[in-house]
């Protein structure tokens, strides 16, 4: 049987059971049918707008950015074929675990997208299999599997195959094409196998990286423990930098924080251990906030949102996930006076007054102006209460 979901806005996904043969060199997945004449009409959940009623094959792009044509144009398609045994290539390698076919292309290499587009969807799709699954990877990036080896090793006990470079026909009794994806940097447990959640994902990361702290400090216990709450400020080397970092550090220390500023450009094991030692994270909107997955539960995430009508995007990407991981979240939206765009454009310019037409024109223009040209200089009279609120949330 084959069961597919082509209606999801984030990814196409198929599960299949029976006799399955996969040939990577031609990007084909053959599903043996019990009788000649089986068509896509027998596929449970198949969307007629994607698969004609008389089709015996269909193409899928196994990557989780389905709505982004520019990115999906670079994703190699996989063809699923319903076939009689004599129509499919003969088995060369037999496997007794399920296969997951997906792409390691797209935004691979962007830290946020590595987690959002690959790691969390892999966790959703495979965690219930308890490591007894094999990854068949299109557009496999060897360095990626090196960087995230601890995570991949917790999801599968088997070698991840480079499907593009393997001409053999691999045979399985169960397979998945595509990855499940629910929302930005998070999981909807109602839709996940075994109802796994982002708390489960956080605990999985703690296991894989041997992170010691499950819960952040409670400041009510500070006098007893003698430790101050720790604040991590994530710095950036290029745009969206804190231009008055020293003022921010001084204000935080006055309130009682122990403060560290870092760009976290380190090996995953080191970066995860560093983040796990803190109770509050502060950063301007950007991929560095992805490190929030390593914070202990009950920690506080403070996101500074630059100008440009970015509030909704910022909330979706880095505001919802902390709450789904039993953490607290504060969003600080800057004013025009706190943006270095005020040094590039005159007061009253549409860049400040009406970003809407810029968004409508193109996302690349939005990125160029609001993400690519903007730093922040926080108004400490306005921002200091935010630091105080973060401290209060640790009680």
Automatic annotation (TrEMBL):
Main location as per UniProt: Golgi
Gene Ontology biological process: plant-type cell wall organization
GO MF assignments: UDP-xylosyltransferase activity
Domain Glycosyltransferase 61 catalytic, residue spans: 203-302
InterPro entries (alphabetical): Glyco_transf_61_cat, Glycosyltransferase_61
Top-level lineage group: Eukaryota
Keyword Transmembrane found: no
Record's keyword terms, sorted: Glycoprotein, Glycosyltransferase, Golgi apparatus, Transferase
Protein's pathway: Glycan metabolism
Subcellular localization, as worded in the UniProt entry: Golgi apparatus membrane
Membrane-protein topology: Single-pass type II membrane protein
A Gene Ontology term for the protein's cellular component: Golgi membrane
The protein's name: Glycosyltransferase 61 catalytic domain-containing protein
Organism, scientific name: Aegilops tauschii subsp. strangulata (Goatgrass)
Phylogenetic placement of the source organism: Eukaryota, Viridiplantae, Streptophyta, Embryophyta, Tracheophyta
């Amino acid at each position: 049987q084959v069961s597919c979901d082509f209606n999801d806005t984030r990814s196409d996904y198929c599960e299949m059971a029976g006799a399955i043969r996969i040939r990577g060199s031609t990007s084909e997945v053959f599903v043996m049918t019990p009788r000649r004449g089986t068509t896509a009409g027998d596929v449970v959940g198949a969307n007629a707008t994607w698969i004609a009623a008389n089709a015996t094959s269909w193409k899928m792009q196994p990557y989780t950015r389905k709505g982004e044509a520019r990115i999906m144009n670079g994703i190699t398609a996989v063809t699923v074929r319903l076939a009689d045994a004599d129509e499919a290539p003969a088995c060369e390698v037999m496997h007794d675990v399920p296969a997951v076919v997906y792409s390691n292309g797209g935004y691979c290499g962007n830290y946020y997208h590595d987690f959002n587009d690959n790691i969390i969807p892999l966790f959703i799709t495979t965690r219930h299999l308890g490591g007894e699954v094999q990854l068949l990877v299109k557009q496999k990036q060897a360095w990626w599997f090196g960087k995230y080896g601890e995570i991949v090793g917790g999801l599968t006990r088997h070698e991840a195959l480079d499907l593009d470079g393997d001409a053999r026909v691999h045979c399985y009794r169960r397979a998945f094409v595509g990855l499940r994806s629910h929302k930005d940097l998070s999981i909807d447990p109602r839709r996940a196998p075994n109802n796994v959640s982002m708390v489960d994902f956080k605990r999985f990361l703690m296991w894989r990286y041997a992170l010691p702290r499950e819960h952040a400090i409670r400041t009510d216990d500070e006098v007893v423990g003698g430790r101050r709450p720790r604040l991590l400020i994530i710095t950036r080397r290029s745009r969206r930098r804190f231009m008055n970092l020293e003022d921010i550090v001084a204000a935080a220390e006055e309130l009682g924080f122990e403060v560290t500023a870092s760009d976290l450009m380190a090996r995953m094991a080191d970066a995860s251990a560093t983040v796990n030692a803190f109770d509050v994270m502060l950063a301007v909107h950007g991929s560095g906030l992805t490190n929030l997955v390593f914070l202990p539960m009950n920690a506080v995430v403070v996101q500074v949102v630059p100008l440009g009508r970015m509030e909704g995007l910022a909330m979706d990407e880095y505001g919802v996930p902390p709450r789904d991981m039993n953490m607290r979240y504060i969003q600080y939206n800057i004013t025009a006076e706190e943006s270095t765009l005020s040094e590039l454009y005159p007061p009253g310019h549409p860049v400040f007054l009406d970003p809407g037409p810029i968004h409508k024109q193109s996302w690349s223009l939005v990125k160029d102006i609001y993400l690519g040209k903007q730093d922040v200089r926080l108004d400490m009279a306005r921002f200091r209460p935010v630091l105080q609120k973060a401290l209060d949330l640790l009680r």
